[in-house]
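Example 3.2
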Amino acid sequence: MTTSKYEESVKELICSDESRRLKALRFIKNSVIGNKTKKELYIRLGVVDRLVEYLTLPDTDAVYPLKIQAVTILGSIAYGKDENVVSVVASGAIGPLLDSLEIPQDIPITEAINRKRKLLEASTRALKAIFSSSSAYKDDIFKVRIVLLHK
């Protein structure tokens, strides 16, 4: 049985080699942006759950590029049909997306924002795509989440 390049890219997401995972994420991102058919294909291939898993990885400089790509893909998938948004929300993406907006408190605020800028931007775009849909359950944003101001 042959597998498509799309199936192969999903398989690469569990590879232990970070460069191969990043390459697969970029391939998926480039495939889904602006392509409703590929968004649906990747949803069927189970990519959404794997992307959410990436968001739960500990914040490190090595992981940020993976998280940025994963969040960008989730946002792109959410820009589409309401069924896509339902898939993203059902995967549990809201909590990790909101968590990705957290700013480290142990460094100066400007440095913290600069370090996470791309992830913050991608996360806010993804959340906007999700919550712009009438299918999104919006009560998740009101769960016990406290935004701490940096002192």
